[in-house]
Structure formats: structure tokens, C-alpha cells
């Protein structure tokens, strides 16, 4: 197992971390544990980045991530600090993991019982049950090798891939081709293909532009399980913040950073009210925003044209709804999928438009947690992936809200329209304003083949010594577990750089 190298060279160093998302929180924990003096500056009033919360009239919504996946990553993270997740929050395994409504009237549950899932697959396509087993074996191998030798290892330079150990472990991994090609080799039925590919939405890609390596997500989904942490993902943020404070991290919320500049032997990080001095700076803010808006032009690694040319993960149209009564038969995690979802992905990546036949996700935490809604009410949010940079106006939102609520009623049988007592929306312009997100992306850089591993921006600036980056733009990429790991990789890179 990969272990975190000695970070003690950072003992006594002063570090300012810009941004309190999972990447920033994780980096801050590793640095503080190593003895660094860590100050974290967060633009918004809440910590957690996109994993913030909305509380209104007795309803509490996770505004961002809502799936607790890869529990092994959280266990490994806390164990570095001689703690466990259970020191800070409890977990409930969901059953079903999620429910899918296909828009042709079909409905299916994916559950913790693998044999039951095999029977479901077999019912759609003769032989698919055995193929499901075979697919999961491949997925598990990719996960174990991929995590140990690629995700937990900082391989951000070409030379990091040019050794025998990498070649040996890469042998047999699904490194070439798309997820669409890979899944088609196992399953012919389009619904089975969709079930194996829906997790790509969490990676910000489509079946045609995401590398086949990410079939490892099926091991995450089916073998490792889907959980709900006490208090939702906000409860996980609270736990990590509590641990960070125990480790000595100094937090400043409501403190937007306006400029990062170097001076002899140190940095000056300017906010509206004061300047913070530090030996090193780590940015967990949007990478493009950091470079284009916070740094002097001569200290930027990339041009504006570079950032314009990137493929961004989708943004999202979100409705946070407090509803009278129950919302059966919706499950805690519910997916509503068109029988042909190619058009939705085309309207995200190829020809940006508001999806006219959307695939979307419904999260109903009140199915599991009574504390997120008043008695007799349900808490849910609707998430429709939409193109980053899409035009987002109040009138467009109103029209799309009506389309989505009509679609939910038509395809799940749950009519929310006359029962809504609390309603908020969040979309492209909100992601841009609240999180300084480039083009209003909800996630960061998509995991296309040209934006995976060494092709993602580095976690150590090549233009400004002592400036580092963490979070979803860097390695290993998008998602809460990946951002936790990015904090470890950034701390390691800092230690290696300081120790050179």
C-alpha cells in the first residue's frame, strides 16, 4: 500500500491555502499534521466548497455532491491522522443503491446484493449475468491497480510513467478506447450500457469522450457500495473541518482572495481587509481563475487561449425543493434516463443547448434522514447536467423548471408541482459567481483522454516557485474522494520540492 512519505521538511513553514473545498481541506490537514502553520482562506461563509448547504424553513439541502462513494478513500485519509471516519460521522449503506426510471416506463433498482443485480442483467439480455461478473472482475482489477499505482502516486510528469514498475502495472489496464467501446464489448442492450455508464456524469464526461479506464467506477458502484453519511456530505465537511482544527489549521471564512504575489522569500496573499504573508501558497480555487485573475501575467503557466480550449465538465441546472407529503416511489438516489441519451450528451459537449429530453438525477435524503425536512415533508433536489458556459437567464430557468417538473410527473408518477413549499434554483451563473468556476462548470476539467493523468494541469506551478494547486483540476481529478487524494499528492509535491 502506498504510504504518505515524510512531510516533516514542511515543519515550521507558513502556508496559506486559498479555498476550502475538499482539496483545500485535505491539503491543509496534511500540512498542519506535518507541523506547518496553515491558514485557510475561504471566499464564502461556509467551508466545503461545492459541498455547501442550504437551510431554509426546516429543510437542509446538500447543494453539491450527495453520493458517498469509495469509503476506502475516506478511511485511508482519516487513518493518516490516527482517526477513523466514525470518530466524526456515521454511515448508512443505501438499499437500493439507486433506482432508475427509464422514460419508456421501465424501472429497475440496483442493490447491494450482487446476485440480485446479476438476475436483473440476465432478464434484459441472455448471458448478461455472467458478463456482469466478468465486467466487475475487470473493474475491480483496474480499481486496485489504478488506485495504488496511478491515483495515489503523483505521476504528473512524463518521466513518472517511464519506468518498469509503471509498465508492469499498466499491462492489462483498459487504457485505450472510450467507455462506450468498452461497455459495448460486454453488453448489447442499451439499458445495460446506460447502467454501466451513468457514473461518468460524476466524472464530467460522456461515454464517447471518457477513457475506458474509468470502468473502475463500476467496482466503486457495485462492490464498494453507496452510503449516506450522517448529516449528508455537509456532515463529512464538518468532520474534516473539526479534525483540521484539532491539527491546528486557522480558518477564515468570508475572505475572498484578490491577489497572490511573490516577494523575496515569501508570498503576499491579499484580501479586501488584510494581507497574509506565507512561505508557500496552495490554491484550491478554480485553477483558471487563480491563474487569470489572482496572479500577475508573468507568473501564469497558461494563456487565456489554453483555458478556452479545454473541455469542461458539465454545469448543472439544480432545483432544491421542499415538498409537502411523501414522494414515493422515488428512492434516496433516483436516475431518470431517456432510452437514448446520446442527444443529451451531444447537447452538453457538441452542440450546447438546454437538453430537450434530459437525463437527470433526483436526490431524496429525507428517505433516509428525518432531520433534513420538517415532519410530513420531503426534501429533494433535481440535477440536470447542462453544458458549461450555457446562457442562463431567469426566463430560461423558469421555462426549464416547468419542463423538468412536467418530466418528473410523466416518467416517475410523482407530481411535485402543487406541493412545493420551499424552492431555490442554482445554475451556470451561480457556479461562476459563488465558486469562481470557469464557464460555470459544476466539476472542473472533464476526464477526457487528453485531460487525464499527466495531461491535467500540474499541482506545482512551473512559473512561480512556491505556488501549488490542489482540487479537481489537478491529479487525480474530479469527485470528493479524488479531491481528498489531491490534497495528499499536493502535500507530497510540496515536501519533495522544499527538500530538493
What does this structure look like?
The chain is an alpha/beta fold. Among the domains are: 205 residues, FAD/NAD(P)-binding domain (3-Layer(bba) Sandwich); 103 residues, no CATH class. Helices cover 35% and strands 19% of the residues. It contains 16 helices and 19 strands. It has a seven-stranded mixed beta sheet with strand order 7-6-15-16-17-14-18. A five-stranded parallel beta sheet has the order 9-2-1-13-19, with helices on one face.
Topology:
Layout: E1 14-18, H1 22-33, E2 37-41, E3 53-56, E4 59-62, H2 71-79, E5 91-93, E6 98-102, E7 107-110, H3 114-124, H4 128-151, H5 164-170, H6 179-184, H7 190-197, H8 200-203, H9 216-224, E8 227-229, H10 232-247, E9 250-252, E10 259-263, E11 266-270, E12 275-278, E13 280-283, H11 287-294, H12 304-309, E14 315-324, E15 333-337, H13 342-350, E16 360-363, E17 377-386, H14 394-412, E18 420-426, H15 428-435, E19 467-469, H16 480-499
Pfam family, one: Amino_oxidase
GO molecular function, one term: oxidoreductase activity
Keywords: Carotenoid biosynthesis, Oxidoreductase
